[in-house]
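pasting for ref
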Amino acid sequence: MTENEIKDLIIALERRALELWNNGNPDGFLELTSEDIVYIDPVERKLEGKKALTEYYNTVRGKIKIDQYEMINPTVQLSADIAVLTYNYAVQRDGLTFKMNCTEVYQLDISNQWKIIHTHWSFVQSN
């Protein structure tokens, strides 16, 4: 694959997972998650390992319903078997707009699949 094809693939994987997530289904992200994931978001403490992340995601399963979302300015940086995806995320839910920043670190595993090894979500700070 070319560098641009890899970048497009990473963004497509993330979009597919977001589509499911926005309808209360975390399975898209869980399928992409490595066993040794480190997950950080502004609501939950740092989680380590796929088991801990699965347990957390199961507490919100079916409870999230996003009316509309936008993945803004996704950027993928590549280095050997690592891809770092960063983007801004804006969602509309119940007439309100929420904005977040996301960083996902993907690693090409031994079966030649891209897996998320690190996730970091944060709220956009308004000025």
